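Blinded run. Sample ID left blank on purpose so nobody reads anything into the name before looking at the predicted structure. Input follows.
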Amino acid sequence: MVERTLLLVKPDGVQRGLTGEILSRFERAGLKIVGMKMMWVDEEFGGKHYADLKQRKGEKIFNATMGLITMGPVVAAVLEGVDTVEIVRKMCGPTEPKAAMPGTIRGDFAHVSYAFSDTVSQAIRNVVHASGSKEEAKAEIALWFNENELHDYPAVSDIHILHQDASHIRKMRKAPKPLKK
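Blinded prediction complete.
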């Protein structure tokens, strides 16, 4: 159940200076960043990421989404933890910001509706993308990151989130063994 998922801070989130706030929410929840980079997405790469969007939503939505993802740099991150795909999706909130509850990323940082986005002929600016399933996460991580860009390391949150044994905690801080009574 420890799994990884892809999170993108889209150009609208990066340009608004929300990257640090967004990533810190996941870290505070106990998820670990095991890969991260900033990059510009071109049409070819964006087409690979959104390969199924044209079929699912039509050419108009696909083109608008491509316009958004290529308008500025994207911060891509791989997050790791228990049930991470589900947790990250929950923390992001629904795709349509208007429907997102306060406290979610989209609920706190966006408020537009599909109807408004259609009116201005733009993709919905919802700040982030998060993989929708475990299978999608695997495919998206493989697209965005090489294996050598992903890192395994101990984090303090692992102790409490993964319920490590107390002896592991002592080893991490190099504490003496408890006194015998």
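Unblinding after everyone has recorded impressions. The chain has a mean pLDDT of 91.
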